[in-house]
Amino acid sequence: MFIKWQARLPVFIIMDEVENLARKIDQIDEKYKSILQDRSNPSWEAIVRKKDLVADRIGELLPTIPDTFPLSRYLLSSTFGYQLVAVKWIEFKKDPFHLNIEQTLLNYIPPDGTSRNHLRLKLLGMIESQIAFSICDIVEDSYWWRDVESKFFNSLSGMVKFRLCGLKIIRNKELFEKFNQYRTHLEENHQVLYVYHGSLPSSLRNIAKNGFLEAGKIKQLDPGYFGKGIYHGFAADYAIHYAEHYKKSNEIMLSMVLSGRSYVVKKGGEKYGKPCEPGFDSHISPEYREIVLFKSAQILPLFIIEFERVPNAAMAEEQY
Q: What is the pTM of this model?
């Protein structure tokens, strides 16, 4: 039996009911699977109406669902019921791009012909016309703040302590499409990694708008010890060290990258100033601290992170 909504109903009760409704959709699908697959079955319409009633109840709850709704967990679920809740939430908000669904969808490639793939295409269609380019502040303790903060802290490699003091989300339709196209080109080697890049605030904003410039199109500090390409660190503090030491900056960029096949560079300057190793898509430094990409389309800028240092520690560059 559904709970009758009342004003100021506790959030946990609302979310429990949303969870129960998602399960109810899945239970109907499982129980009447053979009927739902046959539209000529006399019971088909009655079962669909049963599902519609549950979906309508989900719709009634949407105005009461908090902004901390765990969208990714519902969207990436293997069940239709949970995905249906996510789709209805996005449609209700009428501002789906602020949830950055496009980035979630990059990690989600269900088989062709499945209901999950149908929903994925529907979501992409919903956001296509709404995302061009923007850099927007993220509110502290929001979903994306907590997600980035978790990635940031989990990546730290040294004893230096840092904290987030500002966060901006990047939306760039053109870069997204180039990235997705390159991912298709990589076929089975299309896994994504999260990496960090430090530079001047003005440079990071130019990158957010135009993408990273490839080697030969930008002035570099040196030819590139691990190859003549675009450098990122796997650890946030490695990018921070570069930003502070070379750029006097307190901002770094978090990006999603397509590493493809990675060549691990040997010590001794083996790839100093050289292009990508034939048959590979990226280079990895000997101690696995840095990755070198050679195509701008391999990199999708996601966030600009403003950081501040917690004193009493030091960070050294990778020793060769």
A: 0.63
